[in-house]
TrEMBL record:
UniProt organism field: Spirosoma utsteinense
Protein name per UniProt: tRNA threonylcarbamoyladenosine biosynthesis protein TsaB
PANTHER family found in the cross-reference section: TRNA N6-ADENOSINE THREONYLCARBAMOYLTRANSFERASE (PTHR11735), TRNA THREONYLCARBAMOYLADENOSINE BIOSYNTHESIS PROTEIN TSAB (PTHR11735:SF11)
Domain Gcp-like: start-end pairs: 32-132
Lineage: Bacteria, Pseudomonadati, Bacteroidota, Cytophagia, Cytophagales
Pfam families assigned to the protein according to its UniProt record, in alphabetical order: TsaD (PF00814)
Family matches, as NCBIfam families: T6A_YeaZ
Domain of life: Bacteria
Cited CDD domains: ASKHA_NBD_TsaB
Length: 230
């Protein structure tokens, strides 16, 4: 199976190619603004530089969110366009689950992993996963961080908080003995989107290309421009 995976959930734009579960290549672009042109370039680079062509793909996978509204629309629209053009199945992976997969092997099975994506102010998108097998322990939610946040989880044992939303949590819960924080920033990546998507492909968990939408978690809130006095 040749699988192309994409992730544009945050300001990091990435494309990866896996063959039968083995990573062949991954291109990541760390910018303040993701664009469809950037993603298309990364797709072409990773496919061509690994010696393949788009028509050889067996499926396309995308990080479905949560994350940036604009970023998610770019990633999902691009993935759906490729699926339509190439007549290939679409796979989707929760962005937070893919983040947890990046670090899962480095922690004891008894630990709980909590990836976080910044959602502005003191709010984060987060979920809880088992370090043992990546199993989701609590579904994705938008949480406002305060001194009482995640008390029951921390009472049960060590929790690893990471991602670009974890700094907010560290400022509030950093003194708790069971609250662990990574010094290195973990960002969403097509590398682990591809790992989880490969499992989904094997199990036949594909999306309806025509109706699939990103997992926004919250409705898009446009900022009303302020009137300027002259």
């Amino acid at each position: 199976m040749l699988l192309l995976s994409l992730d544009t959930s945050t300001t990091v734009c990435s494309a990866a190619l896996h063959q039968d579960g083995t990573l062949l290549g991954c291109y990541e672009l760390f910018t303040e603004r993701t664009s469809s042109a950037m993603l298309t370039t990364l797709i072409n680079e990773v496919v061509q530089h690994t010696g393949h062509e788009l028509n050889q793909l067996d499926a396309i996978a995308v990080g479905k969110g949560p994350g940036s509204y604009t970023g998610l629309r770019i990633g999902v629209s691009t993935a759906k366009g490729l699926c339509f053009a190439l007549d290939k199945p679409l796979l989707s992976v929760n962005t937070l689950a893919a983040m947890a997969e990046q670090i899962r092997a480095f922690y004891p099975a008894s630990y709980t992993l909590c990836p976080m994506i910044d959602a502005r102010r003191m709010e984060v998108y987060c979920a809880f996963y088992s370090a043992a097998d990546g199993r989701e322990l609590h579904p994705t939610a938008a949480e406002i961080i305060n001194e009482q946040s995640f008390g029951s989880w921390l009472a049960d044992g060590p929790v690893v908080f990471f991602g670009d939303g974890a700094a907010k949590c560290r400022a509030v819960l950093g003194e708790h003995p069971n609250a662990l924080f990574l010094d290195k920033l973990v960002t969403p990546s097509a590398r682990t989107v591809g790992v989880l998507a490969g499992q989904a492909f094997t199990e036949g968990r594909v999306e309806d290309v025509a109706t699939f939408e990103p997992f926004y978690l919250k409705e898009f809130m446009a900022v009303k421009p302020k009137a300027v006095a002259f």
